[in-house]
Specification:
single chain, 5 helices, 17% strand, two-stranded antiparallel sheet, EC 3.4.13.22, binds the ligand C[C@@H](N)C(=O)N[C@H](C)C(=O)O, binds zinc ion, metallopeptidase activity, zinc ion binding
Length: 202
């Protein structure tokens, strides 16, 4: 991998990982091209910032769980070709029950040039440190619908509070939220603003 990238585990050995695109539990229903190991890779700058977030949350009895980090361009291209195969809807019920898969790009739920491929974007949630259970965010990771938007108002007080804890912790250490997905964050001071990498995750 390029010199300025690292495995997140090197910076945060205790972090929880559930690398969804390595396996089949994702919106395509199958492993995604470019993921050969269930590891999380980020630029060193983003990994260091995330280390600060994790330390800060641990003091409150919480921790991070990562679903996706650096994403090779070939994975993004795989998402694009998947979206064009209209009758392949094996994971629709769980991930995009009310939407037509061909619209997921134009609705902003998947990008054809993704911040993830620049190496400083991460998809993640909060877990309780005592039982490792995910906090209720009102919608699961990669649920494509309005309910995943930050400004969706029909959530319980607890769900709003949980999203706020994550958003404020990430913001404190330099990550900006994405209005359409509560789980997606990009380091503001990312080192590669225009480079989309394509090395394999392994
Ligand atoms: C697909 C989802 N996890 C995600 O990361 N979406 C944004 C828009 C992206 O593809 O960059
Ligand atoms: Zn994302």
């Amino acid at each position: 991998m390029p010199q300025n990238f690292a495995y997140v585990k090197e910076f945060i050995p205790t972090i929880s990982l559930d690398m969804r695109y390595f396996g089949s539990h994702n919106f395509t229903g199958r492993p995604v091209h470019g993921y050969e190991k269930p590891v999380a890779i980020l630029t060193k700058r983003a990994a260091l910032a995330l280390q600060q977030v994790e330390k800060y949350l641990n003091k409150q009895g919480l921790a991070l769980k990562i679903f996706d980090a650096y994403r090779p361009q070939r994975a993004v291209d795989h998402f694009k070709s998947w979206s064009l195969v209209i009758n392949d809807t094996i994971a629709k019920r769980e991930f995009y029950p009310q939407l037509d898969k061909k619209n997921l790009f134009k609705l902003g739920f998947i990008a054809s040039k993704s911040g993830h491929s620049r190496g400083s974007t991460v998809d993640l949630t909060l877990i309780d440190l005592t039982n490792k259970k995910e906090l209720d965010m009102g919608a699961p990771f990669d649920f494509f619908g309005d309910i995943s938007h930050h400004n969706y108002s029909n959530l319980t007080t607890k769900q709003k509070e949980n999203r706020k804890i994550l958003r404020e912790a990430m913001a404190k250490f330099g990550f900006k939220a994405y209005d359409k997905e509560w789980w997606h964050y990009t380091l503001k001071d990312e080192p590669y603003r225009k480079t989309y990498f394509d090395f394999i995750v392994k």
